[in-house]
Amino acid sequence: MPVLIAVVTLCGVACVFNTAVLVAVVRRLRIQSELLSETEARGVPARALPVGATVGDFLAYDTEGRAVTAAMPAHTLIGFFSPTCGSCRRERGRFRRAAARWPGGRSQVVAVVTGPDASARFLSRLTAVARIVVDQDESVRHAFGVQGFPAAFVVADLGRLTWTGLHVDVVPGLAEEPVTVSPGRPETDSPTAV
């Protein structure tokens, strides 16, 4: 009988301890969730040059043959994508919607597809709202210090970065309504499209 009482008491203590640990873990997860939501609302910085840094010199050409350099117009939105990045496939649709609302329109939005496998086809649905740069030698990527994809930037005059992030839908300065977009282009981008 005393052994039975000891076993039941030990089981009761173990259950109370287990419940206390479970409550502590749930509380900690709730705090982490709030922090993550707060960070997402502010925007996660891109894995690249920080805000305030100056973009390195580069010379690239968009698919229409126009030069793109570090001396681009103030308040230019730039997005970096890689054809081997799953997140980039999902981010293309967000970038397209943000680019359609970008003040200054298509002339102040650049989408860069980078890497040895880069092709303009990967970003073909963005041609109505952005200038497309195919960066096979990765010189543009290195000028921005991009280490992870996707990445987005807002460049001020003289190549100074005023914003960096992963998700362009939280970039400050988006217009409420889309700037004129060419008819016939879909507003959404399928994650399975190439």
Spell out the blueprint of helices and strands.
Elements: H1 2-42, E1 59-61, E2 67-69, E3 76-81, H2 86-100, E4 109-114, E5 131-135, H3 139-144, E6 151-155, E7 161-165
Main location: other
GO biological process, one term: cytochrome complex assembly
Keywords: Cytochrome c-type biogenesis
Entry summary:
By secondary structure, the protein is an alpha/beta fold. It is built from three helices and seven strands; from the N terminus they run αβββαββαββ. One of its GO terms (molecular function) is oxidoreductase activity.
Give an account of the 3D structure.
- Keywords: Cytochrome c-type biogenesis.
- Residues 49-193 form the Thioredoxin domain.
- GO terms for molecular function: oxidoreductase activity.
- By secondary structure, the protein is α/β, with parallel strands linked by helices.
- The chain folds into two domains: 1-42; 59-170, Glutaredoxin, CATH 3.40.30.
- Helix content is 32%, strand content 17%.
- It is built from three helices and seven strands; from the N terminus they run αβββαββαββ.
- It has helices spanning 2-42, 86-100, 139-144; strands spanning 59-61, 67-69, 76-81, 109-114, 131-135, 151-155, 161-165.
- It is elongated and about 90 Å long.
